[in-house]
Design goal:
By secondary structure, this protein is α+β, with helices and mostly antiparallel strands. It contains 4 helices and 9 strands; from the N terminus they run H-H-E-E-H-E-E-E-E-H-E-E-E. Strands 2-1-6-5-4-3 form a 6-stranded mixed sheet. It has a 3-stranded antiparallel sheet with strand order 7-8-9. The radius of gyration is 20 Å and the shape is elongated. The model has no long low-confidence stretch (mean pLDDT 86).
């Protein structure tokens, strides 16, 4: 399932997805249907997906239901630089007619601590301002001493 998803191979993926699949988008929280997921992957085509690595896989089976929890790192390369995104993923599979099918997929974005970087106050001042974050929502960025503070408004 996971390799077919990474390759955007809808023909290989479709038989492993339950008709009632609910795929929760980690960024927007939107619930995506099986049909919509396959359409988006088909339109994306192979080669556009990031490199995906999984670790800390835990599998629990309770009768005809299996829960798979793991950490996943997606790495995209842009302009020669690698940009990793880390997730905690929970999948639920149900066994029907002797085959396992994915019925639920949820991801949570794992934000990891970053090391602070010291910058001159003149460099910090370049980031001060108002940044649109969505319809009627903005981030107000101001400098307080030797660091920046952002406040969401709207």
């Amino acid at each position: 399932v996971y390799d077919a998803f990474a390759r955007a191979d809808t023909a290989a993926l479709a038989p492993h997805l339950a008709e009632e699949l609910v795929w929760t988008d980690a960024v927007t929280g939107a619930e995506v249907s099986r049909a919509r997921l396959l359409a988006v992957l088909g339109a994306r085509g192979p080669g556009a997906a990031p490199a995906m690595a999984r670790d800390s896989v835990r599998v629990r089976t309770l009768g005809d239901v299996t829960f798979v929890n793991y950490r996943r790192t997606d790495t995209r390369t842009l302009g020669g630089a690698a940009f990793p995104t880390r997730w905690r993923v929970s999948d639920a599979f149900v066994r029907r007619d002797g085959r396992w099918r994915l019925v639920q997929h949820s991801r949570t974005w794992r934000v990891e601590p970053v090391a602070p970087v010291a910058l001159a106050t003149t460099a910090l001042d370049a980031f001060v301002g108002r940044y649109a974050a969505g319809a009627g929502v903005a981030d107000e960025v101001r400098r307080e001493g030797d660091h920046l503070v952002a406040t969401m408004t709207g």
